[in-house]
Amino acid sequence: MLEIKDLHVAVDGKEILKGLSLSINAGEVHAIMGPNGSGKSTLSYVLAGRAGYEITQGSIAYKGEDLTAMTPDARSAKGIFLAMQYPVEIPGVTTMTFLKTALNAQRRARGETEVDALGVLKLVRAKASALNVTEEMLKRPLNVGFSGGEKKRLEILQMALFEPKLAILDETDSGLDIDALKLVAEGVNALRAPDRGMLVITHYQRLLAFIVPDRVHVLSGGRIVAEGGKELALELEAKGYAHLAKDAA
Amino acid sequence: MNALPHRRIEDWKYSDLRSAVDADVVAAAPTAAWSVASSSGVVEIADLPAIMPRGEHGAMAELAVSHAKTGPYVRVVKGARGAVHLHLTEGGHGRALIVLDDDASLTLQETVQASDFSNVAVEIVVGKNARLDHVRLGTRSDAVQVADYSVRVAEGGIYRAHFANFGDKLSRTELHIALDGEGARAHLSGVSVLNDRHADVTTHVDHATGNTQSTQIFKNVANGHSRGVYQGKVTVRPGANGSDSRQTAKGLLLSEGAEIDLKPELEILADDVKCAHGAAVGDLDEESIFYLRSRGVSESEARSLLIRAFLEDGVAEIEDEAIRASVWQAVEAALTP
């Protein structure tokens, strides 16, 4: 589903990713762990198509297509979803209006019929309560005045609503207490499916106790320095990143 | 008055009337024509009385008053309610008088038919515990339009006004509000949506008595070679304690050639007052655009959504649902290329 080969990415002329390779099959959950500054967020932004991230070498194929040639909105319509570490606040656009606009934009791009306001409301309601997203939150401007936990829950609600094929979660656990973390993890686990791939990016092992990955990759200095099964996350927790980075080198 | 106001006069710095219109055209302009329609309630409509109240006005009002021979007079008697649509059908110099007796209320909708030049002075009196909801819906034109309002709000009275501007060759809307009794309130708002046009809204709220309240929310969007201006002065007179004033002025620039000038001005001469103001000009937030695009929204739709979101709290100040909808419709039309 996703095939990243020898990816080099520069931001403001400075190389951040230095030859990263990674492949994800449908139905798999992969975790990327790494210390601050290792390039985790750069990878998530490159996959979502944010401007300012220059691919200097390598390739990204998504379902056999060159992902780098697609606009961010085209990627979304084709099933890529990035749950952001810092979701933006948009005053003046209610959360519900935003959800309806985004859902229908994706559907339109795929040639599907649009869902009317009532239909979107029903879809949202069906998924919101499990994530403890209240009616009141849906009426408020997008993310404005939301707590860190509320923002993250809303990201997962979007993921549930849009039903992406490839979901990337960028430090979704940051700033969450244990109850919020469990709630978010349950939301993510409910979306595990044979036709869906997931990439969970995190600094800490604790999220991976709730979202158990099929593969764990350790990112350090802009490349993957270690790979393994779910037990690798535990090993990292015990020994730290420095140790692994050294072993790999 | 000998010469037209020009950019070297501080108050007209961003709106150079002298270079926008020929002095001969101004001197020769006829008396403006209006149509007045009362859609509901008990409203007296007549020609101007011989003796009119006079409040503080701007530089051009004197000229309007001396040239305009007559004009509409709208009065809502004590305790009555009404709705009036005032339409400027032909340009020139004009004057009008709106009087709300004590405990009266009026919804005033004002529209204009653009002609080459218009200069109107409107006198408004809001009686004790009376309430006026005023919305002025501008057009987009190549005309020079000056409108000057002098409003006196008595004890417990409320004046709510919204000015929707779409720009002219030069457009100047000037408001002088006197909060002239305990509990008097003025809530002013406006949106200017400009594409290669000019619009200047200049307000002066005078907290003449204590325990008076005012708010101002003005939003400007400028595209092409537009110039949007908001000058907002608030005076709190000596002894007008307990006064409360809040002002927000924001500008959104959509092109390199556009300019927005925001000039808040506070003159506080009393001790115990609450005043807050904020002014900021910027362009569309790239991070917000990326966020929306990452959710499937196209770049043009994302921009359009963010522009409407920027204007939203300005238009939301209009309480009458039908009028608010008509203003949104005009905003939509102005934003559609």
Describe the structure.
The complex is a heterodimer of chains A (249) and B (337). With 249 residues, chain A is of the alpha/beta class. Chain A has 9 helices and 12 strands. Chain A has helices spanning 40-48, 72-77, 95-109, 117-128, 135-139, 148-162, 178-189, 231-239, 241-248; strands spanning 2-11, 14-24, 29-33, 53-62, 65-66, 80-83, 90-94, 141-142, 166-170, 197-202, 215-220, 223-228. In chain A, the strands form 3 sheets. In chain A, strands 6-9-10-3-11-12 form a 6-stranded mixed β-sheet, sandwiched between helices. A 4-stranded antiparallel β-sheet of chain A has the order 2-1-4-5. In chain A, helix 6 (148-162) packs parallel to helix 7 (178-189). The longest helix of chain A has 15 residues, at 95-109. Chain A is globular and about 50 Å long. The two termini of chain A are 29 Å apart. Chain B has 6 helices and 18 strands. In chain B, 51% of the residues are buried. Chain B is of the alpha/beta class and 337 residues long. In chain B, helix 4 crosses helix 5. Chain B has a 9-stranded mixed β-sheet, with helices on one face. The chains are: A alpha/beta (249), B alpha/beta (337). The A-B interface holds A 48-51, 71-73, 75-77, 81-82, 84, 87-88, 90-93, 98, 101-103, 105-106, 109, 141, 158, 162 and B 285-288, 290-299, 301, 305-306, 308-313.
